[in-house]
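step: validate -> pass
step: tokenize input -> pass
step: predict -> running
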Amino acid sequence: MLKQLRSFSALFTGVLLILIVSSCGTGKKSVYFSDIGSESVSHKASAEYFEPLIQTDDILTVNIQTIDPRATTAVNQGGGTSGNNTMGPNDAAPNGFLVDKEGFIEMPMLGMIKVAEMSTSEAKEVIRKKASTYYKNPTIQVRFANFKITVLGEVARPASYTIPNEKISVLDAISLAGDLTIFGKREDVMLIRNNGAYKEIARLNLNSSELMASPYFYLKQNDVLYIEPNKAKISTNNAPKFQIITIAIAAATLIITAIARF
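step: predict -> pass
step: emit ->
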């Protein structure tokens, strides 16, 4: 009976040690694009960039300029500005022209202008054509005021960010969020994208250079990146449980040893 108890205690202790050691591993490499060699110059395929299309409930910054800046003051009053810097979670909501449910924006003097399903460059030309009725050779600028992406999970600054530049990549978004922590799973980043009536979910591998050619390399408005915790983070969270089990086994081992001496 005592031999069986000792064998069981030794076996259980060994299994526990294996579990603890394996759970404390750091998982995959924490280096981006670890499959790229050490050569000084290499060439990788690049993802194709598509201009985002304006959707209902988007907010646009529209600025019309002429030789006399005072002439367009009334038109530009509703446009406001979202500034030139990336907006973080504590910044005020952007000003601009809201795209209504029918896809129109309403501008002073120019009236209702349909812009939905257009890129900002296409919308600029439509607005320029209408503004030319009132102004000579107007210069038009159209930008998203609420181009937002969200980064969650194992990053330094998880938050939603409003981007002044429409062209933003996965790497840009991660940089805005302060990079992944050492506990982030670089080989399995989840991207969640609105696609009409359903959510489109893609898995991205930051360890692979193939990411640069992925159709998901460039983000769209309202995209969400979620970085899951790796095994090291999970084991850290489970450390108190392992401590309790270890203490229990140690106590059981002492009892079995004490019994064996009698």
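step: describe -> Strands lie at 59-65, 97-98, 104-107, 111-114, 139-144, 148-153, 159-162, 184-195, 198-204, 224-229.
step: cleanup -> pass
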